[in-house]
Design goal:
globular, UDP N-Acetylglucosamine Acyltransferase, domain 1, single chain, about 25% helix, about 375 residues, 7-stranded mixed sheet, alpha/beta, 12 helices, Spore Coat Polysaccharide Biosynthesis Protein SpsA, Chain A
């Protein structure tokens, strides 16, 4: 069967407001040279999904700049390719738009025309902040083999009560058929299957759901669609065994990024056979390490100039670390300059930040110190 993909770029903007004030969640930088959406797009392309619609709501200029024509993901095609679906708001709805972030189901209502014009049989729905390398082709085969109406990707995870309250827990019978959902439960802990917010569904079934939701004023895909139809629809759970991270706060962004310093995490995320992670290509010179520099257990992109000390850190493209500067346990985004004698620990510096000579900034791994884009400190 033919498959199209739909990605939600804004539904989780409120989770990390520090990083999404000027961009969508989809375009949040990650892992030296990637954006969140790169993982979702790569999962789709590697599984043969060659037409993808990205639903946008606000702050999507950086997403447009990053995606371009889609050629870096081999999606520059007239017949399929990549399409940005803009928000469907009138001039009289601006106040509502600014005060309300649409849910997945509300976002799908704005994409009804796009979905109805597609010819594919199946649709893969995915959030943009799902950091994993999943074989969607295998998930689609599982969906078809079981004759499912809806298939949800799940991951067995050991949850604290705080983490459980940020996730949807999926319960199944012995044959992987979903028989219950716990939507953001507040008193659950232990090992449970959680939804990865990746769903396979028939295109016509999705259109019927959207029409029904519009007629009844439904807003939640989990509560108003899946739970209401859990007996009448055949809803299956596809178990994913690989690495997975979902960012729901700045502290989690910091923690998930620091996990990339583990070679095993990098191997299971980036070194999967026939499933590379694609991103926008930039031709930059190699990073230059001057005399007296010291780098340990860190990831550095190209185009940097390192003259100081970098330890246990993630450094994006074009960063300058001047002599005597010390960067430890930190994330430094593109084109930032760290002045001579400056000291950073447990910090997240956004793009184009200037840290002046001798400045000391320190946070904690549970509460990293964040410096916004284009700041001078």
């Amino acid at each position: 069967m033919s498959v199209t993909g739909i990605i939600f770029s804004n539904v989780h903007d409120s989770n990390i407001p520090e990083l999404t004030r000027l961009r969508t969640t989809a375009s949040v930088p990650y892992g030296c040279r990637y954006r969140f959406i790169d993982f979702t797009l790569s999962n789709m392309v590697n599984s043969g999904v060659t037409s993808v619609g990205i639903i946008t709501q606000a702050n999507y200029q950086s997403l447009v700049d990053h995606i371009g024509t889609g050629k870096d993901w081999d999606l520059a095609s007239r017949s399929g390719g990549i399409k940005l679906i803009p928000p469907n708001f009138t001039a009289f709805a601006q106040e509502a738009r600014l005060s309300h972030v649409p849910t997945r189901l509300e976002s799908l209502k704005t994409a009804t025309v796009y979905i109805s014009r597609r010819k594919e049989d199946l649709v893969v729905l995915s959030d943009c902040d799902v950091i994993c390398n999943i074989d969607l082709g295998d998930m689609i085969d599982f969906h078809q083999k079981n004759g499912a109406d809806i298939t949800i990707a799940t991951k067995k995870t050991n949850l604290t009560q705080e983490l459980a309250a940020k996730n949807v827990i999926v319960r199944t019978d012995g044959d992987s058929r979903v028989n219950d959902l716990l939507v953001y439960p507040k008193d659950i802990s232990g090992e449970h299957d959680i939804s990865l917010n990746i769903i396979v569904i028939g295109r016509q079934k999705l259109l019927d759901i959207i029409m029904d939701a519009s007629a009844h004023g439904y807003t939640s895909f989990n509560s108003d669609v899946i739970l209401r139809n859990i007996r009448s629809y055949k809803i299956m759970a596809y178990s994913y065994e690989g690495y997975f991270a979902c960012v729901s706060s700045l502290a989690e962004y910091f923690a998930c990024s620091m996990q990339l310093l583990d070679p095993e995490v990098r191997r299971t995320l980036f070194k999967v056979k026939n499933r590379p992670v694609y991103t926008k290509v930039r031709n930059s010179p190699p990073t230059r390490y001057t005399a007296g520099s010291f780098v340990s257990n860190s990831l550095l992109a190209d185009g940097c100039v390192i003259s100081g000390t970098v330890e246990n850190s993630i450094i994006f493209r074009g960063v300058t670390v001047r002599p005597g500067a010390v960067v430890r346990n930190s994330i430094v985004m593109q084109d930032t300059v760290i002045g001579s004698g400056a000291s950073l620990n447990c910090t997240v510096l956004d793009k184009n930040v200037i840290i002046k000579d001798g400045v000391t900034l320190s946070g904690h791994e549970s509460y990293p110190f964040y410096v916004p884009k284009n700041s001078i400190v």
